[in-house]
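Lecture notes, unit on protein representations.

Consider one protein chain, 271 amino acids long.
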Amino acid sequence: MANYTITYSEGVKGFPSFYSFFPDFMMGMNQFFYTWKGGNLYRHNTNNAYNQYYGVSYPSTITSIFNESPLENKLFKTINLESDDSWETTLITDIQTTGYINDDWFEKKEASWFGFVRNNGPTGAATNESEWELRSLNGIARSISVVEVRFVSAEINFDLAINIGSIISVGDYLYFAVPPYNTPQFAGEVTQITVDKPNGINRIYVDTSLSGVVSPIPIQDAYYLYIKNPIAESHGVLGHYCQFTVELPVGKAQSKSELFAVESEVMKSYP
């Protein structure tokens, strides 16, 4: 359990903030704030380094909630920070797994920081039941043959009448299900898509060396589907509400930074 120091403000008649330092004793004297830690005396607010206590640097963290129209399912697509700097952002909803935006993924637009929410849920062999309901999940068709080098690579061939489609791309995660088509199994990561129907080619290549790949892949008649790479493809996170945490990482947090507002582009979800 983490320990925090809280402060009381006479102006707001409440406790406006939590601090990462946890002293043994504290007191105010001569308009300065003093604390003791490990037998050493410290005077606060006397240097230019922010979020640095007893020789340890800390990040700045703020947690709040988007909860407009709480009875409707929504997709939280983007985050916009009216701030001096970009903050690492994590989102959690009541329905789906977490979303995430690294502070380096934000783009500065019209003096604000704008970023697309990436789904941070499990993929590959760790994909669970909640992930099969994502909008980034797409089906292809049943295979007609598979040529596999076990735990190295596999070539999955489809009937020439099948349109593999332009949505699937290198880096996506491929899965298969066999009759009676229960929980899909992890086939590997897509490395190449080759469609040359005049020459009888309609296939997908996958890397089967990844952890958790099920091998051997059925020779034929398995149904294939794929999930988009969550870093490359942004679909947002689904939920009635969204709890978000913005964090100014250590390094940035040692300088003054102002965060005025956090906004999100939200759209109603239609199942």
